[in-house]
Amino acid sequence: MKELICIVCPKGCHLKVDEEQDYRVTGNGCPRGEEYGKMELTHPTRVVTSTVRCTGGAHPRCPVKTDAPIPKALIMQAVRCLDGVELTAPIHTGDIVVPNVCGTGVSFVATRDL
Questions:
Q1: Are residues 68 and 103 in the same domain?
Q2: Does 53 share its domain with 106?
Q3: Tens digit of pLDDT for each residue in 13-50?
Q4: Whole-prediction pTM value?
Q5: In this structure, are 55 and 33 located in the same domain?
Q6: How many angstroms separate the CA atoms of 3 and 80, rounded?
Q7: Do residues 15 and 32 share a domain?
């Protein structure tokens, strides 16, 4: 049995997920908590945030994030995709920095105008 704190909403329900009973979730206050508990143990994903070098802007680095969650197992490989990336201003929020990260169909996008 695994214990998790649900992060889907501000309630922060304390979930218990029983792996031996087909990932049965208890402690959730809503159906979204049940879905979160099952997904976190069967297919954990995360939105990845980082920064990349930038020239010609007001700041030397530009913050970026994935535009959707990626499998947790690919996080380090995804961050390595940013090595050597250097942007040139102007950069706008939402601009694609690295498309199709690790073949996931998810892109790194800029999260700040520079």
A1: yes
A2: yes
A3: 999 999 889 899 999 999 999 999 999 999 999 999 99
A4: 0.81
A5: no
A6: 31
A7: yes
